[in-house]
Amino acid sequence: MAPIPSSDNSSIQDGRDSYALAERAEAGTPSDVEEVAKARADGQKLVDAVWGTIEGDGPDYRSLSWIKATVLQLKTQVGLGILGLPNAFNILGLIPGIIVIVTIALIVGWSDYVVGVFKLNHPEVYTVADVGYMLGGFWGREILGFAFWLQIVAVTGASFLSISVAFNTITEHATCTVVWAIVAMVVIGVLASIQTMSRISWLGWMGLASIMSSVITLMVSLGLSDRPSMAPAGNDWTANTTLAARPSFIDAINAVCIIVFSYAGTPNYFSIVGEMREPEDFTKSVIIGQTLMTAVYLIVASVVYHYAGQYIASPALGTAGHTIKKVCYGLALPGLAAGGLILVHTAAKYVFVRILRKSHHLSKNTPTHYGVWYGCITITCLLAFVIAESIPFFNDLIGLIGALLGTLICIQTETYMWVWDHWQSPSRGSLKWNLLMIMNVMFHFIGWFILVSGTYAAVVTIRSDFQNGSLSQPFSCADNSGAT
User: What pLDDT sits at residue 32?
Assistant: First the structure.
């Protein structure tokens, strides 16, 4: 295996020693966990294949527990994605919607598992770009690295867009929409500048509670017969739901891409496992996180669709009545901000590590360390702001992200990672190996189908929406809350 060019061979070997815990645990020596904990308690240096020597005078980039990792996974996923799911059900129908969510959950859940195993096998990997170098050399690193970074920046833009919708809803469009997007950018940028994942994990708890309280409020209000904001005035309206709809191919694949987007946090998991105190616990956090996430998605999408039917707004929190939707967005604001700051932090950390990986400034509190870090935060926020204002409609933006970027680095890359690691496995040719190989190849080509067809559908939809006036113009002050 060729080493990552930004780390020398001795650093990689020291990193492998620091990760020997996983290998020895498989050999039956779980006491290694206690040894690592004791070494930390005694103030001994930790040498990591990515961060180098971690000492007391710098940030500890290997301090994330598996519980905090689970929370960060949930907050990375449960946020913007959940706000598009009811509309996906409205397009597909209840039963197809449930089938697609479960199918995508299983495929991406496998990808998440592969991330953790790959990290244990190759401790020098910190981002999907490092994987790209191992699989495809220089161009593999640059292509996957750019796709990863662009996806996170684009999703951050969707966060800014959703926050501007929230402020417009709460204030009844008190000022220009661009101003609200700038407010979102500044607040998220400041919070995202906190240096380590461990230190922002508490914001993950807050954000998760915020989003869940808002969607629960939405479901309760609709269940109590609150008139959806998109429904006609008065009582002469009926929510129509179908078990299986008959959408056009363009609409159907767009709905699938919205669901893919709701699970498209996989590339962020490289950073999460890379900062875990005990990376071998990553699989446990993935199983718990993916199970809770899918259960929440199914409940929220089904309940909102059942009570609102065709009168579902985008984002879904705007579905509630005039007053309740203000409450929903008020409750959701901390969660939308928390999700955005985790995304900004992850995107900026990727560039930060790429710039300083060979330098002692990476894990030392030097002027260069701070200058590069805050510069990465600023550039990430500015680019996300431009994306948010260039495609100013929630469903169109998340559908495009899910199709063009979500599948490439959440399905195709991880399935190929498994094949790459197991092609010369001693178990090659066994029934288990054959079945897993077939499964990975199937998942891989499903991802390519969604990428090609979904990108085409998203572009057609965006073009159509601009032409018929459904979308406001880029950088417009117009109200984007759909207020009624």
Answer: 38
Is 369 in a helix, a strand, or coil? helix
3-state secondary structure of 48: strand
> What is the reported pTM?
0.79
Cα 11 from chain centroid?
30
**In contact, 191 and 341? CB cutoff 8 Å:** yes
Report DSSP letters for 281-323, one per residue: GHHHHHHHHHHHHHHHHHHHHHHHHHHHTT---SSGGGGS-HH
Alpha-carbon Rg of the chain, whole angstroms?
A: 22
Distances (CA, A) of 54 to 35, 50, 198, 232, 428: 17, 10, 15, 61, 39
Q: What is the pLDDT of residues 222-253, one digit of tens each?
A: 888 778 888 887 777 888 889 999 999 999 99
Among 3.30.70.260, 1.10.1040.10, 3.10.450.50, 1.20.1740.10, name the CATH number for the domain at 64-468: 1.20.1740.10
CA-based nearest residue to 98, from 243, 237, 1: 243
